[in-house]
Amino acid sequence: MNAVDMRINKTLIRREFWENRSLWLVPMVFAAILTVLSVYMLVAVLVNHSGAVNNIDIDNGPHFQISDMPDLRDASDAEINGFVRVVTFSLSFMFSRLMLIVTFFYLLDSLYADRRDRSVLFWRSMPVSDTRTVLSKLATAVIGVTVVAFAVTVAFELVLLVLGLILGAALGTHPFVLLAHPGAFLSSWLLVAWGELVQALWYLPIFAWVMLASSWAKKTPFLWTVLVPVGIIVAEAWVFHTGYFARMVAHQTVDWLPLAYNFEPLAMKSSHSFAEVGGELFGIGNIGKVLAAPRLWIGAAVAAVFIYGAIELRRKRSEI
Amino acid sequence: MSMLVKAKGLTKRYGALTALDHVDFEIEEGRIVGLIGPNGAGKTTALKAILGLTDFEGELDVLGHDPRGDRHELMRQVCFIADVAVLPRWLRVSNAIEYVEAVHPGFSRERAMHFLERTKIKQRSKVGELSKGMVTQLHLALIMAIDAKLLVLDEPTLGLDILYRKEFYTSLLNDYFDAQRTILVTTHQVEEIEKILTHLMFIDGGRVTLNSSMEEVAERYTEVLVAHDKTAAAQALKPLYEREVFGKKLFLFEGASREELAKLGELHTPSVADIFVAKVKGEMK
Question: What are the C-alpha distances in Å from B257 to residues B215, B219, B254, B260, B264?
Fold first, then answer.
């Protein structure tokens, strides 16, 4: 790809972010709200602590003694790795659920909004092929959104780290030990990025379906997107009394997890310490498992068919 | 001189309705062609076919491309503003310029800025914040900053005030048009463009009813103001159209000898609008 093509692709994706500000505003606002809540909790804890209250009563839940807090200086490397990993993964998981919803609504409108507001003829008066336009929107959903979500997540985690350091310092857990383990953070982030990439690949056929519906609909693409699969599920249950299609779709959304990460060593034990979470979550073997999964390739093929349909419709249906 | 557009047997049907019925025409480089027709005559369909925005039957060659397949290739050399093509409300002026600059090899930022300087449009504004006229100005600035071989304007001045409309056509002629460029324009405001056209094309009921240069039009069509005692003689020469004006009859002739017509009364060169009405009404008879 030459420089001109790169610039066009970059601009096409930027254009999507200009139009769909929710793609970056939603995660940022969410992160901002979480930050405010965290600061509020931090202040609350610090005030309580300085008032020499050693019990933190969270809605009459289990009391925990601040004196029980571990001294991080006593923690092993594996424990710190595991701790960082658990926190990083939980936060990223939250953000990635949120981004799936945002992406869904983005794709619903992606090939419909400009037909509705009639700007489609302006876009099509530019020397950009319909194939390229449709692919740029898919790339925005798969790559653009992932990058933004990842960046916001990392930024938020850094903020949280600072707050955690303040809290830890106040409680005497010697949290600055964490800073001596940058590898724990970097590797966690890499693992999260890997997971998001695999998830995006698994969601490809679903994304492509939403785009096809968006390209097809004369109004309310949402109904087409949802009613067609629901119709298939209902018809299957009615005629065959089975639920293969529903299960297939459901599996597509979660089956990547045990391939991308090793959960088996964890699942075999009844209780987990942080040290165990740190070690074996990912190995080179996971890349092999992901690439060998039929779901990946079948999903990609289905996605290709849907995308082809979306491009053809885009070519023929410039008006609603 | 090369042919930019060649249409042969161009046909478009929407269900039972035939919007274009085996139309043949050619557009040569360096012309400003006015495409005139009543609503629903097939003007917009013809433009859409040329721009690769609709399927059709028959042959159509635009700058060596079949518009159906190579729309994006074609759009490197063809620009258009359709009355129905609007800029999206969320688009910022600066972003619009950035976008076109990136995707269009023929776009010049300087030229766009030059056109925008004459307006009150601010770089930071979003399209949704601009008035209807300003949106059109922005669209025109973007399109006229593109070095294209063929410019297609479909009702370009819709929503503009008279001042800017005049200015637009002047600048189209002075700043944009040259021998390598070709402009195809449709409008209901025929009188606005009639002075700048080099060629005229009438389209009515899905057929091209006239396609010639403005000189030929001026030669071929003559209006004669005839006193009542000579109306029978005028009618004998088979006028295209007649109407009552100030107690006299105004006849419009196609291809009649000027010498002969001069005997009947005062000769005029009819306006494009008059010829158009005569052609459309005349054919209805």
Answer: 16, 10, 9, 5, 12
Do the chains contact at B87 and A318, CB–CB below 8 Å?
A: no
As given in the structure block, the two tokens for residue B216 are 């030929």
- Cβ within 8 Å, pair A15-B82: no
Range of the domain at A155: 3-316
Neighbours of A117 (CB within 10 A): 15
Chain A residues with CB-CB distance to B under 8 A? 4, 7-8, 10-12, 15, 18-19, 113-114, 117-122, 124-130, 132, 315-316, 318-319
Roughly what angle, to the nearest 10 degrees, separates helices A182-216 and A294-316? 40
Query: What is the DSSP annotation of B134-164?
Result: HHHHHHHHHHHTB--SEEEEESTTTT--HHH
The gap between the terminal CA atoms of chain A, to the nearest Å, is 34
State how many domains chain A has.
1
B147 touches A at CB < 8 Å: no
Paired residues of B285 in beta bridges? none
ipTM above 0.90, yes or no: no
Question: Where does A111-144 have alpha helices with state H?
Answer: 113-116, 120-123, 130-139
With an 8 Å Cβ cutoff, are B103 and A126 in contact? yes
Write the pLDDT tens digit of every residue in A118-174: 888 889 889 999 999 999 999 999 999 989 988 998 999 999 889 888 888 887 777
pLDDT in tens, B20-71: 888 899 999 889 999 988 887 788 888 888 988 888 889 999 998 888 888 8
